[in-house]
Each structure stands twice: as C-alpha cells, then as structure tokens.
Amino acid sequence: MFSLRPFFSYFLLALCAFIRIFAGYYYMNLTMKAKKMMLLLAITAMGAVNAKAQHEVTAPQNVYARESMSLNGDWNYFVDQQEQGYYDYRMNPTRWGYFLNAKPQRPSDLVEYDFDACPTMHVPGDWNTQDEQLFWYEGTIWLKRDFEIESGKLKVENSRFLLYFGAVNYEAIVYVNGKKAGRHEGGFTPFCFDVTDLAKEGKNFVIVKVDNKRHQDNVPTLIFDWWNYGGITRDVLLISVPKTYIEDYTLSLKKQEKTGKKQEIAFSLKLNRPEAGHTVTVAIPELKLKQQFVTDDKGCLSSQFSVASSKLQLWSPETPKLYQVEIACGDEVINDEIGFRTIETRGRQLLLNGKPIFLRGVCSHEETAYTSRRCNSAEDADTLLSWARQLGCNFIRLAHYPHNEHAVREAERQGFLLWSEIPVYWTISWKNENTYANAERQLTDMIRRDHNRAAIIIWSLANETPHSDARDQFLGRLAKTARSLDNTRLISMAMEVTGASNYVNRLQDNMNQYVDVVSFNQYIGWYRDVNDAPKMKWEIPYEKPVIISEFGGGAKAGLHGDKEQRWTEEFQENLYRENLAMLDKIEGLAGTCPWVLKDFRSPRRPLPGIQDGFNRKGLFSDQGKRKKAFYVLREWYEGKTTNTK
Ligand code: GCU
C-alpha cells in the first residue's frame, strides 16, 4: 500500500535542516516571534517523524472477541548479547539492523545473520524454559515469524490491521516487513500497533527485539523475588477491525443505597475515532434486554439501563454467574461474558453484593504447576485454581504483576475474587518521571484490559515500598489515576508493619489516605520473632477493612523433623497455626493471603538441597505436593466460610 507519509516527514526534516544551516547566521538577529516560529516548525517536524515510527494504538477491549489471526506458534530466534542487530559499532541505532531480515541478493553480499536458519521457540512462552542455554539469560533476543495475509481472509478494504501482544518481557521493539511499528516497555500488560500501512496482502514477516535486562529505573526495578522470564510471553494476534471500531466499553452494576425492585447497569463505550452518530446496540438476551444508543462527537456514549432485581443473578464466588452480552456498532459485533456484582466497604467490613464477606485468599505467581514456566493459557491457570480450591479459597492475590487475561477470565468463571497488582515492587526510582510514566502506563493498561471482570475487586498499586515523600507522591498520583479510571473497585497496596516494640505491631503509613482496604505483609515466625506470634498485639488506626496480603514461611516438601527445625514441614505447620491464631485477634480482619500457593522459581533462593532456585514458602510444592501447613490453613478457612449469595 503506497503512502506519501514517509516523504512528507523527511521533507519536513530536510526543511528544518535547510532553515537551520542557512538561517542560522540570521537566527541571532531574528525577532523573538520569528525564533518561536522556527522552534514550532522544528517540533512539528520531529513530531511527524515520531508519528511515523509510532503506530501505537490503544489495545482494544476484549481482543479475543475480535476477528483475528493468531501469530502464536514457532518463531525463529537468536541471541544478540551486544545488540549488534540494533546498534552500529559506534553504538548508534543502525538502519541496517536485523529487523530488515536481509538475505544475500548476490553471491558476494555480506549478511551475517539468517533467521530462517535459526532454531525456533514457542510463542507465547518464555525463553528460559525452552532453551537450557537461556535459563539464566538476561539480554536481547530477536524473534521472527512469517505470516500470510490472504486477500479476502482479512477484509483489507475497510479495515485496519492491529498487531496485538498480550505481553512481552521486558522491552519490545517491533518491526513489520522491516519497518518499525513501535516500542513497548513493561513485561505484563498488553500493547498494540496499527500496522495497516506496514502489512501487505500475501507474505509478511514480524520481527521483535526483546530485551529483559533489569535496570534501576524500570518497573519492576533491579531486584525482585521471582524469575525474570524473558520473551514473548503471551498471545500475539493480528486483529482486523473496521476503520471505525469499538475501542473500549464498560458494563457494571451500580451500587444501590438500598436494595430495591430495580438495579441499574451502567454502560459506556468509546470508538477509536471521535465520530458522532454511530448507533450502538447492547443486548443481554438472557435478561431480555436490548437497548440502542448513539455516540457523541467524541465517539463516546455513557448511559445506563435498569433490570428487575428479581431477574438479575449477581456474580459471587458461590454463583459466578456470567451473562452473554452482545455489543454491536455498524458491522462490528462483540460478544462478551460479564458478571454483575458490587464491591464496597462499610467501616471495617468488606461487602460483596451488599453482604459482608471474608476473603479466604492465597497469593500466587503466574508460573505453571509442575513445569515452572510462565503461564499463558486457561489450562495453566486451571491447575493453580484447582489447588486454591482445595485450600478452600475464594480469593487470589495475583502477585506482583497483572496476570494473563486467560487466567483472569478462568478465575472469574470459577468464582474466584481477584486482587490485581502492578510491579511497583520494593524500592523503585520514585523521583524519576519516566519511571512514574511507566508505572502509570502499566496501571492504566491493567485497568483498561480487565475493568469488565467482575472477579477483580481490588487494584493494588504497589508491594512493600519504603516510606519517603517521593514515594508518597508517586503512589498518591497512581491512586488518583486508578480512581479516575475506575471508581467501581477498591484500591489497596501491600504495606509493611512500621513499628514493632514490646510485641505491639503498628501500621502507620501515609498511603492509608488513598486506599479503601488496609493491607500489609508480615512475616512473624519467619523473618522475625519466631514463636512470638501468640504475644503479638496490633495497632491499625484506620476505620477500614484489613487484609493480611502476605504471611508464611518456607518448607521443603517431604522434609520432616522438629517444629523448631527450619525448612521442615512441621516448622511451617507450626508457623501457620500460630500466625492464624494471632491474626484472628486483629479487629476488622476481612481477609488473608498467605505467601504463597506453590513453590516458585527465584534467583534469590540459592540454598542447595532446600531451595535450589525456588522460594519454598508454597503450601504446595512446585510438583503439587501438599505440605502440612496446607491442612492447617484449610481447616481455618472452613471456619471462615461466609455465604454471599
Ligand atoms: C516479600 C515479597 C515477596 C517475596 C516474599 C518472600 O514479602 O513481597 O515477593 O517472595 O516476601 O520473602 O518470600
């Protein structure tokens, strides 16, 4: 598809260069007005160049309901430790990089790479568990995949092609047919490029430069207690959408002052273009609901419709009712499964659908059972969810980053309430504006992807962050952003106990002004005060529900001995017994999330014969073996069962 745009931007650049060189001399003598004019021209030129490189668009809501071609499968790959395929030997970005997928045209041509001669790895998937040599690898790897656009398969006339990535850890630079589509940073949220101008009918190729190197100013920062799985870790789709398409929509049940005969369902929608007059139909056949709305000049609409309370089955762990919903605009029809529920706090109570609930939780990383690799499917999630089910859980803290959409939807289908978090973990660069922008982007993308998921009740902004003004400002801004994006859910973060003298544990944290639920991690019995749990007292001066977002201790499955002997199952069992009795004394305790569902990989856990690269605080081993503490927690949760039907 031929377009003038590339020439326009180079023309503007050349124009600036010309003005700069020849007018430079006169510049000093120019009036302030003329100087401002020149600056404006330069910025516009730069903007145009960036615009060219930047094909980034907002990832559409509910991508799996869109017309698309999966680009999952085997991708050729090779390691580029020194990023020679991106920088020249002067370390300037090169135009002749590996993204060109060059092939020798003549016998004498020098091309020192060949994707097609390279091994393949499966996408979605991390490289660490697919290639032994890459188990510890942190750096750049190039991945390539060919794909075909058959005419008629994807209606090219009036549609746009969006290249969607569920997630790539950590930095992704994406090229289609040798041209840059864009760059994304952050390993756990989706991103999308409009590649209509880069793709063509017939043969195409997409190349991704993936770099999972850790940096101080990243989110997460240099150190974190999980494996730094690198790669294209979630689905890749080539989505076909009409020129004007539904970018986002929201359906949620409005909170009610008092239970009435009718319930209000709020509905809003946003098109990708600011176009008025588009008719949108929303239908919930099971509720015999069908309504039409029209977009305003921003391409948006926001309204509500009511339904008889008697007819509406609310979503809850006991009855995870999802309604088929159909949203249509022009020839675009999107089907979704949506549950309706309300979540709120009243004093120290947590109310689901207006009824008090106790969150019988567990924390879990996005790592598969048995094989310990990145999860990326509903099946991967199902095994972990079945283990949480065995524990008697109704709640899962998805630690410490947004998990894949399949897992969130599977948990919702199975009736698990969820806590979803961004990896603002430990001590990140609070004063760095780019770090803030990155964190805010991850927060926005997390909420944008999952804001229709009834299962998610809490957005978590951070984990175990050190107190400082810079930190308070950083997290305060994130809290405001979260509220502005979604005022139907609760906000929290995993804090830390601040003062512990004479067995009195105090929680003083400026962040409490921003959160709806006070959550904190405590490791009494493991990192501190072994066997002192019975003596502990708590001072939590906030009239809000309390969630213990982490507690626990390690045990090597199958290692038995005295309860004083660390790493034995008996030590962990005793720790749980004492901790649960201690937690029961906390006023306003509305939930607990022990650390952690299963043993998981971490480079911070080297102890030979015990840890061997695994954090062993699981209630299950990585191979699914229940440890003795499992039974202590299950029994305690049996006593905490509340019915919110
Ligand atoms: C921390 C942290 C977890 C970590 C755990 C541990 O609290 O939030 O990510 O794995 O403690 O030390 O095991």
List the helices and strands and how they pair.
Layout: H1 5-27, H2 32-53, E1 56-57, E2 67-70, E3 73-79, E4 120-123, E5 140-149, E6 159-165, E7 171-176, E8 179-185, E9 191-194, E10 202-211, E11 236-242, E12 246-253, E13 262-271, E14 279-284, E15 289-294, E16 300-308, E17 323-329, E18 332-338, E19 343-346, E20 349-352, E21 355-356, E22 359-364, H3 378-391, E23 395-398, H4 405-414, E24 417-421, H5 433-450, E25 456-463, H6 469-485, E26 490-496, E27 499-501, E28 504-506, E29 518-521, E30 537-539, E31 546-550, H7 569-583, E32 589-592, E33 600-601, E34 614-615, H8 628-638
Parallel strand pairs: 22-23, 22-32, 23-24, 24-25, 25-26, 26-29, 28-30, 29-31, 31-32
Antiparallel strand pairs: 1-9, 2-11, 3-4, 3-5, 5-10, 6-9, 6-11, 7-8, 7-10, 12-13, 13-16, 14-15, 14-17, 17-18, 19-20, 20-21, 27-28, 33-34
This protein binds alpha-D-glucopyranuronic acid.
Characterise the protein shown here:
- The chain has 645 residues and is of the alpha/beta class.
- The chain is 20% helix and 29% strand.
- The protein has an 8-stranded parallel β-barrel with strand order 22-23-24-25-26-29-31-32. Strands 4-3-5-10-7-8 form a 6-stranded antiparallel β-sheet, with no helix packed on it.
- A hairpin with a 2-residue loop joins strand 7 and strand 8.
- It is globular and about 75 Å long.
- The structure holds alpha-D-glucopyranuronic acid (GCU).
- Alpha-D-glucopyranuronic acid binds at residues 225, 400, 463-464, 521, 550, 595, 615, 617.
